[in-house]
């Protein structure tokens, strides 16, 4: 009799567990994995002003978030407590705005456990300025033509307002040698371009294109080489011209390479290849050249070993390099300015030793001849194992 009572009690408990389990399954996977904490705020918030009087906000997804709230105001700290919109995506277009105020935005990430803290405040106006310029001829100095970057045509930028004006912008720079000590702060954009449309030369041939530039770490601590692209008359010359960090936004140095120009009018465009951009540009100088720096090495690859990385690449197709410099860092575009090694002649392999297993290293290679240094090879990342 006692055994029967116990069996009935066990049966009731088993039935209750089954019912609870079925209810949990019916509620779906979300119920079984309900978050225990609110997500962190989104990161990488960017504002893009549109010519249609809109501002598009984009951001990097927050781990564990199921949606995002957008708060807006027209004064610092005036975003209020009610979001203007919520979305499950990582961008939102705020349309039908006015050209008069500055708009201020904050974002939060949301899940079933609650709402995150707000992101740092970001501000923008709309519409963005219309790019002008690019048609001022160069100033003759000896056998060179000097073009002031303040006169260039700027386009493709994520125009944004910060400090006291829109970026990119022409501003006063103590290190500038252009009229009025005016240089262009190009700021950060993955699509930005600087174009000179009236580069006139009397003879077709090889010319040195020299850029006078400056930048500190700015918004990207650790970035030491902001590579840029160069296009001439619609054809891409390189996507990896070297712009090593100068250490300060008012301390200038030079980046240059040689390329063929047509007799008469040429169009020269510097273009961004990443969001790092080139922070400040002063002048572009065009000078006849007798010989070229090497073309960029290519097809750089890296093979991990035990505390080692073995690199190999294809040598420069032109320019007869006499050596190759190898650069290493621990983040993209963060390779040290001083090479970690050099190979002589036609040697296109290098083994980097004494590394930390499990750490990711970034590499690039540049070729050297008597004229100077080439653009970079492609960047590779490798983790010794």
CATH superfamily of the largest domain: Galactose-binding domain-like
Instruction: Determine Rg (CA atoms, Å).
Output: 28 Å
Distance between the termini: 67 Å
Q: Please summarize the sheet with the most strands.
A: 7 strands, antiparallel
> How many domains make up the 3D coordinates?
4
Binned strand content? over 45%
* Secondary-structure arrangement, i.e. CATH architecture of the largest domain: Sandwich
Q: Let me know the average pLDDT.
A: 89
Number of helices: 2
Overall geometric form: flat
Contiguous uncertain segments of 5+ residues: 1-27
Tell me the structural class: mainly beta
Helix content: under 10%
Do you know the CATH topology of the largest domain? Jelly Rolls
Annotation, overall tally of beta strands: 30
**CATH domain class of the largest domain:** Mainly Beta
Task: Provide an overview of this structure.
By secondary structure, the protein is mainly beta. The protein has 4 domains: 2-32; 43-124, Immunoglobulins (Immunoglobulin-like, Sandwich), CATH 2.60.40.10; 139-288, Sandwich (Jelly Rolls); 298-382, Immunoglobulins (Immunoglobulin-like). It contains 2 helices and 30 strands. Strands 9, 10, 14, 15, 17, 20 and 22 form a 7-stranded antiparallel β-sheet that branches.
Which structural traits does this protein have?
385 residues, mainly beta, Immunoglobulin-like, Jelly Rolls, 5-stranded antiparallel sheet, 2 helices, 46% strand, flat, disordered N terminus
